[in-house]
Amino acid sequence: MPPAWIVVNPLEAPPIEEQRDDMKLAMFFQANQILGYLQQNGQLPLALEDATGRPVPGVEYSVQGPTLFRLTTALSLGDPPLVYDSTQPLSEWIDAGATGKLLGGLDGAKARAKVRR
């Protein structure tokens, strides 16, 4: 137990939508790494680690065909579950919330900071 003069304020978890955008962005980066591996080696990696070095926790990779793969998350981030299928262009799969973070937009974080003040 900390001394009485230390005030512990528990951190509030980000909203589920923001967590979902963060995971989608992580999956976007992982998919790009897999596509780069495919382009360099002419085949998909056997394991996610082979393409990424360190996969994002909670992201699962499965080979669907010679050049097709799927990324899913086992984390519960709302419905529907996050799934990226490589038959779909990444630019179509990623949505505005995650794209905003990719481009440096932190609108959700800024809005929460204003509310807390």
Provide a short characterization of the protein structure.
The protein is about 45% helix and about 10% strand. The protein has about 120 residues and is an alpha+beta fold. The chain has one domain (about 15-110).
What report would you give on this structure?
- By secondary structure, this protein is α+β, with helices and mostly antiparallel strands.
- It has one domain (16-111).
- Helix content is 44%, strand content 11%.
- The protein has helices spanning 16-41, 48-52, 90-93, 96-102, 107-116; strands at residues 59-63, 69-73, 83-85.
- The chain has a three-stranded antiparallel β-sheet with strand order 1-2-3, with helices on one face.
- A hairpin with a 5-residue loop joins strand 1 and strand 2 (69-73).
- The radius of gyration is 18 Å and the shape is elongated.
- It starts with 15 loop residues before the first helix and ends with a helix.
- The model is unreliable at 106-117 (pLDDT under 50).
